[in-house]
Each structure stands twice: as C-alpha cells, then as structure tokens.
Amino acid sequence: MSRNQSDLGVSGILFGIIAALIILIGANSFVIINPGQAGVLSILGKARDGALLEGIHFKPPLISAVDVYDVTVQKFEVPAQSSTRDLQELTARFAINFRLDPLKVVEIRRTQGTLENLVSKVIAPQTQESFKIAAAVRTVEESITKRAELKQDFDIALDQRLQKYGIIVLDTSVIDLTFSAEFARAVEDKQIAEQRAQRAIYIAQEAEQQAQADINRAKGKAEAQRLLAETLRAQGGTLVLQKEAIEAWKEGGAQMPKVLVTGGQSNSGVPFLFNLGNLDQAVD
C-alpha cells in the first residue's frame, strides 16, 4: 500500500469520526416536547427557569438534559383515615383525578423530583389531612348520611392544599367509606328498632282504621233501620213489605206459595203466604 493510499485511509477515518461527532452533537442539540407534555431543561445538573412546552427546543449538547413530565389527566387511588366529631373511626378511599400545571413543572422538578415522589410525599398526605378536616366536623352518622356534603368539604380542602404544589385537582370520587364494627352493630340495632317501631305504628293505624270502619258500618246500619222504620210508619209502608216478600221468593229464601191471600179488603195490604203442602201435612 502506498503512502498516498495510507493518508487517504486515515483521512477517511478522521472524516467519519468528525461526521459522527457532528451528528451526535446535532441530535443532542434539540428536544421535541409532544402535546400533553412539559419539559424541564437542566444544564450541568441545574434546572433552568421556564418550562419547555410542546414543540422543538434547542439545548446545549452533551452538558444538558431534559426531564419530561406528563401533564395530561392522571388518576391515583389514595386511602385516608380520620376520627369523626363523636370520636368514631372512619376510613375512606379516594380516587383523585389531577394534572400537573405545565408552568410549574420546573418547581416540581426542583422540590419533588419525580411524579412518584409527588404522589407519595404530597398528594397522599394532603389527602389524609383534607379528609380529617371534612370528617372532624361531623358525626360518623352524618358522614354517611350526608356523604355529598362530606365530599364537597374534602374537595375544597384538597384543592386549596395541592394548588400551591402545581397540582390541579379535576375531580375526586369516594370509592369506599367504612366505619368501625361497633358502630356497624349500633346502626344495625337502630335500624331493627326503627323497623319494629314502624311496624307497631302500622298495626295501630290499621286497627284504628278497622275500628273506624266498624263504627261507620254501625252508623250506616242504624241509619238504614231508622229510615226503614220511618218508611213503615208512613203511608205506603206496606208496599215495602210487599217488595221484600217478593224479593225473598226470588232469592230462594222462601218456598213458592201455592195460595196467595191478601189481608183486608185493600189491595195494598201485605200478602200472607201459605204453603198448602204444609197445611196438608198438618191435617194428616
């Protein structure tokens, strides 16, 4: 191999190295932040002010790094426990929907570091404190029966506490709300007592209604008898007796007579009915 060829080979290697360095430096001079992300630029380990929002950004090559944070809606379930106003233990589990404020990710990077640290060191303890605030002003029974009010107070307290950390609370849900076994037994005994009391009230009301119905029926029957007596005393009352005799025949309450004898000379007299079969038997 000639000297010229050797020089060309060395030059080619050097050119390749230089080209690779240029490509490497060029690739490390820019960073792309996608939608739903925010970046924090650190140069020689020091975070620079101003978050990197979506788009392409220049960064010093080789001596800088960019930490990218997800600023879309995220969800974490956090347990909490508190004592109520009547000193009962109340346990809850909350689902918290939140997102990071893109303009405060630099502060989050400096104070908390990673999202995992943010959840464990900020969101979890602040959830616990907010639940204590909401539960402490209520009895355990009020916390259960007025669950919406408890959640409202919790939301207000949590939002105020997390806002200063660059955390925007979008929504919370109470997944579970439990109380001590002693209170559970007390609630069950109270429900049983209430059911028995309601049953006793129902029975008393039913008896009262039945008694009133009997009174009404007795009054109705007495009134009917009074009206009937007045009708019988009035002129034409015998017609009523004739009508009842005919209805008795129709309903089968009496045997069909073989002889019909009317009383007196008036056609309006009450009919007297005789069964000749019975008379024949009597003669025999």
From TrEMBL:
Q: Which SMART domains match?
A: PHB
Q: Which InterPro entries match?
A: Band_7 (IPR001107), Band_7/SPFH_dom_sf (IPR036013), Prohibitin (IPR000163)
Give the keywords, sorted.
Membrane, Transmembrane, Transmembrane helix
Instruction: Kindly provide the name given to this protein in its UniProt entry.
Output: Prohibitin family protein
Classification from the root reads: Bacteria, Bacillati, Cyanobacteriota, Cyanophyceae, Desertifilales
Source domain of life: Bacteria
Domain (Band): residue spans on this chain: 28-191
- Which residue ranges traverse the bilayer? 12-33
Q: Which Gene3D superfamilies match?
A: Band 7 domain (3.30.479.30)
